[in-house]
Amino acid sequence: MSEDHLTHYRDGIGTGSARAGLARPGVALTPATVAHRLSSLYGYALRRRLTAVNPVNLADPVERPEVSIVGTTPARTVEEATALVDGAETISAAYPADAAAVALLSVCAMCVGELVALTVSSVAADAGHHTVILFRRKVDRMPIPPRVRALLQPLLDDRSPSESLFVQADG
Prior knowledge:
Keywords: DNA recombination. By secondary structure, the chain is mainly α. The chain has 2 domains: 3-59, no CATH class; 78-156, no CATH class. The chain has helices at 3-15, 31-47, 55-59, 78-91, 96-108, 112-116, 146-156; strands at 123-125, 131-134, 141-143. Helix 1 packs antiparallel against helix 2 (31-47). The termini are far apart.
C-alpha cells in the first residue's frame, strides 16, 4: 500500500466516485466519515501486513479532510453550566420558556430536537419525588435538579399532559 493508494481511496469516497465502499454509489461521504474510513484502512493495512510502515507514518503525507465542528456542542465546565442556570433564573420572570429551555439544554445535555419534542407529561416525578425528564434515547429517564424543576413549573401549570412543553405564542 502506498501514499498513492491512500490518496486515491480518500478522493474516491470523498467525491462519491469510488467503485466500492459506498452504501450509495455516486454520493460523497462527509469529511468526518472519510477521516474515519482512512483510520480504519490504516489499521486494516497494518493488521494484514500490507505495509511494514506504521500506518500513521504512511498516512502522514496524505491530507485528511478538514472536519467541521459546526453542529457540535462544546463541553461546558461546571462553572459555565452553573452560570447558564443562574442566567436562566434571572430571566425566568420575563421569559419563562426561554429560561426553562436554557436550563434543560445546559443540565440534561439534550439536543434541540429532543427539547422541542418534550410534552408536559415528559416532566414527571418518580416514586422518590425526584423530578425526571422522560425522552427517547438510550436513557429513558434523566433526573433534573430542583432549580430546573422550578423553572419548568410555569410551563406545566394548567396544561394538558399531551401538550408540547415549549410552544410559542402563535402556537
